[in-house]
Amino acid sequence: MKIKMIVTDLDGTLLRSDKTISERTISALKKCRGKGIKTAYATGRGASSKIFAPDELFDGYVRMNGAAAYDGETLIYSRFMPIEKLRGLLTAADSAGYKIAVEYGDAHHTNFNITEKWPEILHYEKADFNKINSDVEKLYALAETPQVVELIKKHLADGLHLWISNDGFAMIMHEEATKSRAVAVLAEKWGINRNEIAAFGDDTNDIDLLEYCGVGIAMENALDEVKAAAGFICDTNDNDGIAKWLEENVLEPVGADSISARRSNESILRADIESAPTESRFIRIRKM
Length: 288
Prior knowledge:
- By secondary structure, the chain is an alpha/beta fold.
- It is built from nine helices and 15 strands.
- The strands form two sheets. The protein has an eight-stranded mixed β-sheet with strand order 5-4-3-2-1-12-13-14.
């Protein structure tokens, strides 16, 4: 199988724990691009992704879990949310004293100081949610109590979906804002079949991407349910997992059928993972 496109998540996948990319991984991605292979990243981050992912490594990127896809710097796919679908939730949460924010226009509009939690976010504004009139890429809240979650569910509008993490982060997106949908648009733009894409991920918001692409690779540090959805498991994000896999399977493949052979070997490990008990880090709720 010939790989023509590589897609990677950022946090926990391409980025090491200290939020840097290793020189070995940078070299591997550059070599792939030198062979004519397209590269992209797909992240839940917004504008802050630019801080960690150098432009010279990528031909395109997906932000906000799939709310926006870019070919170079050209927006080619967007699934934003009308502010009127969110205003009731925003004002109710704000009145209750819950920490909540929206992202649009490369900035965070929030009712709390988000740099205390995410120091790398440079652009945020204290918002009056009654005065925002723009469509929104992402809404997020700190789900610090069950009451926050219940309020979000109560105000969740049709056509949106909610991700809730066990570490207290809730995110609302357009129902068509997924990594797989956005990557599919990029691939079509570049004339690439889904079976010619290799994708790397570690968290549950990567599962649809790994299942969509012809070759899905989970990091060794990935959640068990992500490993179960992948065709391969590579080394950890802190131990050059992406670089090692690319070197072995794309840059210096053993043979034409090496990827298929390794997928067969990995099936034993996936079977063990699928039979093991798991605790999902994210819960997805869709309002129909």
